[in-house]
Amino acid sequence: MYATPGKNLETFPNPHPGRDFTVRIRIPEFTCLCPRTGQPDFAELLLEYVPGQACVELKALKLYIWSYRDQGAFHEDVTNRILDDLVAALSPRFLRLTAQFNVRGGLYTTVVAEHRQPGWQSPAAVTLP
Predict the structure, then answer these.
(1) pLDDT of 71-112, one tens digit each?
(2) 115: left (phi > 0), else alpha (psi -120 to 50), else beta?
(3) Which of 41, 55, 70, 77 is catalytic?
(4) Residue 3 has what pLDDT?
């Protein structure tokens, strides 16, 4: 049985909704197509989020990311589309998506998009001796 790409971002209940904690997911094999040339664009995505009531299910996330493989998209657009879809599915307290695209024509592109729930404040950083 083979998995197929899809846009369904499944979630599961946050096991600790009373606590702020960060989930970091590294996605080293993101691929989409250049909308001008049709050539593949490769990127590493770093997803960081503070869950609200839901967390993203990893297999569903993998299939969602895979669904962009044959889609033409500018780097700025695809990064923000993924962020918007994740925010819609998760309603996180905070979410940051960093997309580091591989070199194309001597240029590297990094796009960072963020969402912050209204009123949410990041906890102060703790510095240990």
Answers:
(1) 999 999 999 999 999 999 999 999 999 999 999 889 999 999
(2) beta
(3) 41
(4) 79
CA distances from 18 to 14, 15, 93 (A): 9, 9, 12
DSSP 48-61: EEE-SSEEE-HHHH
Q: What contacts 70, CB < 8 A, 6 or more positions away?
A: 33
77 is an active site residue: no
- Quick one: average pLDDT of 52-76? 96
Neighbours of 121 (CB within 10 A): 10
Question: Which of the listed CATH numbers 1.10.3720.10, 3.90.930.1, 3.30.1130.10, 1.20.140.10 matches domain 11-116?
Answer: 3.30.1130.10
Catalytic residue among 20, 32, 34, 70: 34
Whole-number average pLDDT of the chain: 95
Residue 34 falls in the annotated catalytic set = yes
